[in-house]
Write a structure and sequence with these properties.
6-stranded antiparallel sheet; two-stranded antiparallel sheet; SH3 type barrels; mainly beta; 47% strand; 103 residues
């Protein structure tokens, strides 16, 4: 299945403890159906000291399910993503406005 959400997309959280918050996708796991969004679904992890990092409690963004995310269109509203063929290329578009996302 083609990726409806990609790294760098601005998204809004639809469900969960961070409902309504916005962020940018930093990584996507298409096989697991999850994405890591900057500043969303934060958890505290304990880290041992290494040569490069300090020991202590580190806040880390945890993966969130793709079904709980919606891309934000140009108007700033959440929208679903569709696909259409333009000039022989498959392009993602916002279902609410019909505008191409990958333009």
């Amino acid at each position: 299945m083609a990726a409806k959400l990609k790294k760098g997309d601005k998204v809004i959280v639809l469900a969960g403890k961070d409902k309504g918050r916005e962020g940018v996708i930093t990584s996507v796991d298409p096989k697991g159906g999850k994405a890591v969004v900057d500043g969303i679904n934060m958890a505290i992890r304990h880290q041992k000291q290494t040569q490069t990092t300090q020991a202590g409690r580190i806040s880390k963004a945890m993966p969130i399910d793709l079904s709980n995310l919606a891309i934000i269109d140009k108007n700033g509203k959440p929208t679903r993503v569709g696909f259409k063929i333009e000039d022989g290329k498959k392009v993602r578009y916002a279902k609410t406005t019909g505008d191409a996302i990958d333009a």
